[in-house]
Design a protein that fits this description.
Elements: H1 11-19, H2 22-33, H3 39-43, H4 51-63, E1 67-71, E2 79-83, H5 85-88, H6 91-104, H7 111-137
InterPro entries: HTH_HxlR (IPR002577), WH-like_DNA-bd_sf (IPR036388), WH_DNA-bd_sf (IPR036390)
Domain HTH hxlR-type: 10-109
GO molecular function, one term: DNA binding
């Protein structure tokens, strides 16, 4: 697992120490905006993350409290990943990156960006509520 070394006391530097990796941001994106929640789901993303990098970034996110894993109820050798409150608190940050990217990207604007343009605060609340409900319904592994 990639070790986090804090280079300064700067809040932006601190944030980048955790979130300055494109794979971390894409995993968080998938957890926030899609129903992806397993290793296989993340592997199937368009960006084609390598298996060793995916495993490393999932460990990093979990070790630092952004996500948690639980054993799948259907398949005991499968882990299901979900955001923690710390991860959910990143929704506004990820949304701002999405809005900025859509402004300068030549591709069609995604439905979620159109929704954000109409009601950013309401959309953020809706995402937070949905993801918080998942946290409250999860049973920790081993219990």
């Amino acid at each position: 697992m990639k070790e986090i070394l804090h280079r300064s006391d700067c809040p932006i530097g601190y944030s980048l120490d955790y979130l300055g990796d494109k794979w971390v941001l894409l995993i968080l994106r998938d957890l926030i905006f899609t129903n992806k929640s397993s290793y296989g789901d993340f592997l199937a993303s368009d960006e084609k993350i390598a298996t060793n990098i995916l495993a490393d970034r999932l460990k990093l996110l979990e070790a630092n409290g952004f996500i948690k894993s639980t054993v799948s109820a259907e398949k005991k050798n499968k882990f299901i990943y979900s955001l923690t409150e710390k991860g959910i608190d990143l929704i506004p940050v990820i949304i701002e990156l999405m809005i900025w990217g859509s402004k300068y990207d030549s591709h069609d604007v995604k439905d979620v960006v159109k929704k954000l343009e109409k009601d950013k605060e309401g959309t953020i609340k809706q995402l937070r509520d949905k993801l918080s409900a998942r946290i409250n319904s999860d049973v920790p592994s081993g219990e």
